[in-house]
Amino acid sequence: MKKADIGLIGLAVMGENLILNMESKGFIVACYNRTISKVDDFINGRAKDKKVIGCESIKEFVASLKKPRKIMLMVKAGQPVDDFIKKLLPNLEKGDIIIDGGNSHYPDTIRRTDLVESKGKLYIGTGVSGGEEGALRGPSIMPGGSRAAWKHIKPIFQEIAAKAPDGQPCCEWMGENGAGHFVKMVHNGIEYGDMQLITETYHIMKEGLGMTNRQMHEVFAQWNKGELSSYMIEITADILAYKDQDGNEVIDLILDTAGQKGTGKWAVIEALDAGQPLTLIGEAVFARCLSAIKEERVAASKVLSGPKPQFTGDKQAFIEDLRAALYASKIASYAQGYQLMRSCAKEHKWNLNYGGIASIWRGGCIIRSVFLSKIKEAFDKNPALTNLLLDPFFKNAVEKAQSAWRKVITTAIQMGIPLPAMTSALAFYDGYRHERLPANLLQAQRDYFGAHTYERVDKPRGEFFHTNWTGRGGETASTAYNV
After folding, report:
1. By C-alpha distance, which of 196, 183, 408 is closest to 282?
2. How far is Cα 170 from Cα 140, in angstroms, rounded to an integer?
3. Is the CB of residue 220 less than 8 Å from the CB of residue 240?
4. Which of 63, 361, 406, 427 is the most buried (most CB within 10 A)?
5. Residue 441, class by beta-carbon neighbours within 10 Å (0-12 exposed, 13-18 middle, 19+ buried)?
6. CA 181, CA 124: separation in Å to the nearest integer?
7. Beta carbons of 464 and 451 less than 8 angstroms apart
8. How confident is the model over 122-151, as pLDDT tens digits?
9. What phi-psi label fits residue 146: left (phi over 0), alpha (psi between -120 and 50 degrees) or beta?
10. Is 423 within 8 Å of 287 (Cβ atoms)?
11. In Å, how far are 78, 163, 356 from 83, measured between CA atoms?
12. Strands of the 175-176 sheet, one edge to the other
């Protein structure tokens, strides 16, 4: 058999499916797994009679590849990636390429890019979104790292990637070092927000409006035909209609404790470090944490009181308000995510193409939706756009939805149904549109107890002042700095 166009290490679900995707597009693929029996099982099973080369050692694997060698790691993030890089480097030649396709934390990718380049090789850290189906049929791919590697990887990645409705491949170069994994981290944070907003909508439909799963299925299916059309709305409709072989509605059998793998948390930590208000995604992460303390909540439910949900208005009109509130909250979530990308791109000197990012998220990935085309259009019109809320389309959409948005949140509060993400989205919008916020009082408090100083409205920015509030504190002030 001819030498392979690309090699892949890690035969879990994503790895196997990516190999089959590559092979179906005409590429010869070599594979290796630390547990050799998995190689044999794959070659004799799903990859039987396909252009896939099974290898039983790193040396055999490397020898099976065309130069420059292209090796994709689909292994667990963290130490396993470092371990394989260490094993591979002595066997590679100058210009060979290592690709990490897992959900690595982008600072690790920056470090690994520096290491691999210092050895004369090239490195790519790439986000791959779409789950197992996307890996097999076409994911959204977000590569970054050694720029010189892109021309070698581009034909393969763009061929196996999903295609947007206009035929464009959902894969484009993100930027240097950790840019690819950074964009994937933000993608996953937005995914957390989308999921939480939908679950809050489900909660108020179920508990507040007393809707059946079938009725909710019909609403989500209808919403998927309009401006909310997206993969997440589509699968929510499917889930609500699903019954097992005994006729049970499976959604009602699932324990209400959510898991998480860390990418949403990373996005929130990054936002805190960057001083960016990623409040909705933060609430989405904390909502999962609250769900996880199930036993405490069960005990608290027997002790703590609140209003009993009882809706008395026009149910159909309120469902339309819910749709509008969900849409407005989604806009706020993406506005926050893009703010974070802009801030961190400036810090790391990445030239992120914000319209291009929205474009490659239009197909293959978990957050794919018709909504993303509007984000692409916004940045195509104004690449320097500071916030999506300032784009005419999104500004008008939020203004149109604003009354319904407030009505939904007010009603939920009165019924005692928590909507943490949706509420934080509205709070962010209200905060962002206020010319003056009460932080002047906060700065006065900080100066009073800690002499932390403040700026004045009647003086130029950057000049700091201290008041001896008690007459006992003296004029010495603390050094001004921001965390």
Report:
1. 196
2. 5
3. yes
4. 361
5. exposed
6. 9
7. no
8. 999 999 998 888 899 999 999 999 999 999
9. beta
10. no
11. 9, 34, 33
12. 52-54, 29-32, 6-9, 70-73, 97-100, 122-129, 140-145, 175-176
The string of pLDDT tens digits covering residues 140-192 is 999 999 999 999 999 999 999 999 988 999 999 999 999 999 999 999 999 99
3-state secondary structure of 151: helix
**Cis peptide leading into 460, omega within 30 of 0?**
no
Q: How confident is the model over 325-356, as pLDDT tens digits?
A: 999 999 999 999 999 999 999 999 999 999 99
The candidate with the shortest Cα–Cα distance to 352, out of 143, 148, 165, 162, is: 143
What's the pLDDT score for residue 472? 81
Q: What is the pTM for the complete model shown?
A: 0.92
Q: Which of 191, 200, 270, 283 is catalytic?
A: 191
Residue for token digits 């520096």? 114
18 vs 410: CA distance, rounded Å: 46
| Residue of 324, 325, 332 whose CA lies nearest to 395 | 332
**Tally of CA atoms within 13 A in the half-sphere of 124 that contains its CB:** 31
Structure tokens given for 26:
């005409």
Could you tell me the two tokens for 6? 């690309």
Residue that has been written with the tokens 């994911």 in this structure = 139
The answer to whether residues 364 and 129 touch, using CB atoms and an 8 Å cutoff, is: yes
- Residue 77 CB neighbours (<10 A): 17
**CA distances (Å), 95 to each of 71, 75, 175, 464, in order?**
12, 22, 19, 53
The residue with tokens 């409040």 is: 279
Sort strands 70-73 and 175-176 into parallel, antiparallel or unpaired: unpaired
Both tokens of residue 100? 């990490």
Cα 379 from Cα 354, distance rounded (Å): 6
**Phi, psi angle pair for 63, to nearest 5°:** -65, -20
Contact 131, 106 (CB under 8 A): no
Options 184, 265, 374, 376, the catalytic residue:
184
Provide, rounded to the nearest whole percent, the portion of the chain with pLDDT above 90. Answer: 89
Helices and strands (H and E) in the chain: how many: 19, 8
Cα(128)–Cα(121) distance, rounded to whole angstroms? Answer: 22
CA distance 349 to 150: 19
Alpha carbon of 87 to those of 34, 61, 304, 367: distances in Å?
11, 12, 56, 35
Residue recorded with tokens 């962010």: 428
Residue in the block written with tokens 């749709």: 323
Structure tokens at 322: 């819910």
> Phi-psi category of 322—alpha, beta or left, where left has phi over 0 and alpha has psi -120 to 50?
alpha
